[in-house]
Amino acid sequence: MSPDQWIEQIRAGDQAAFRQFYNAYADAAIRTASAITRNREMAKDAVQETFIRVYRQINNYNPNLPFDPWFYRILTNECLRLLKKDSPLSKFELPDPETNPSLTEESFDYLSDLYDVIQSMDDIHRIPLILKYVKGFSEKEIADILGLNQNTVKSRLFIGRKKLREQLQPDEEEEESK
Amino acid sequence: MSKFDERIKNDLAKRTDKDVTDLKDEIWNEINQELFERRRTKMKRKKRWIPAVIIAAAALVLAFTLQTDPGLALIKGIKDMFAPEKEIIQSIEGQDEPTKVQLNEGKDSEYIIYVDQTRYKMVKGAEADIITTIEPLPEKYPEVSMEIKQYPQDKPEELVKQIEAELKMDFPKLRAIETVSEPVEGYWLHGLTESKWDGKVVDVYVISNGKDGSYVITERYFLEAAEGHGARFRHMLESFEIVE
Fold it and tell me: On chain A, which terminus has fewer CB atoms closer than 10 Å, C or N?
């Protein structure tokens, strides 16, 4: 079923359609929130609140515009709101590489895991990368979601991807360049 | 997609798999509870105690101030219990927007509502009060307004059915009557004429007036203004309180 059909049915108060819509959208939404917040509970709250807002405010959605950027704008803003709200504490909750067994026991491969490289970046580079690679959004869609100029997004993605390339092993870089 | 892009995508998926598995059902249960189960079992009570607390507080202040002559001048009405202005956080597309709103009394001071007076004005009429844009919109735009009207003799459960029948003439795809707890506690009707930018939207809330009658709040706007006027009307309505 297309988003248009779901929206029409959700507007009409169809709870079964809303459940189907949740099943279709939840996986990517959880991945996105989990990657943005880096916190399981915060991701859960952000996704939950987003779906509730979508159900209650579906009438605020303009069907002449694409649905996914609207949905992800709400989700991203909710993630950022929770991060901001929790900021005095969140820095203490990040794992300490010296003491966290899950990090110290990992192999060298883990250190080259691109997820960790993304998470080491600042938000302005990290979040566009997450939106691009979790959901496959275009530069224009990411610009719409984050309320940025498309060229700004292009530049931030370029810098983010450059940092990721720099973390790859030399042999992988060579393979990539072939 | 290049191998490089593929690897980034896979790494992100791999590291978020566990949260998807762990959280998907849990989140749905919470959403289901919030949106559907709670609504079936009970309606939110938040609005019920507020008038009682205000009346009790007003009575205490009144009892105290009536003991002195200057005190008599201090109490002009129960509306004095509300701040003349406050800042609310409006959520527009999930983005928090701080907005200053001003206290307005309804017809015969029987209710109060905080109005964003940078954008809207409240026009008091003999039958109803209307909140609308400060400057009239150009003719090409459909009506944008929020009307608040009291029906002292009509109970909400009967009145909502009557309004539903009337609205169906202009809004053939009118959504079925729903019971809501926000922005006010009562019945909600929603209609849209057509999915065009200027499609007319109507939201009607039918709530108890605390006695044997009802208040009917009718919001009118158009589809393209849903995220603007529609969202702002909703936030203003959240401040609606019956004071008599």
Answer: C
**pLDDT confidence of residue A102:** 39
For residue B193, the distance in angstroms to the closest alpha carbon of chain A comes to 12
Q: Is A43 on the interface with B (CB under 8 A)?
A: yes
Cβ burial of A52 (10 Å; 0-12, 13-18, 19+) is middle
pLDDT over 50 (residue B47): no
Contact A176/B14, CB-based, under 8 Å?
no
Q: For residue B45, what pLDDT is reported?
A: 42
Residue ranges of domains in chain A, CATH in brackets: 1-94 (1.10.1740.10), 106-178 (1.10.10.10)
Q: Determine the Cα–Cα distance for residues B97 and B55; give it in Å rounded to an integer.
A: 32
Instruction: Identify the CA nearest to A139 among candidates A160, A167, A108, A169.
Output: A160
Q: Decide if pLDDT at B71 tops 50.
A: no
Structure tokens given for B84: 């003349």
Contacts of B30 in chain A (CB under 8 A): 48
Q: Any idea which architecture B83-242 has in CATH?
A: 3-Layer(aba) Sandwich (3.40)
From A52, A70, A164, residue closest to B8, measured CB to CB: A164
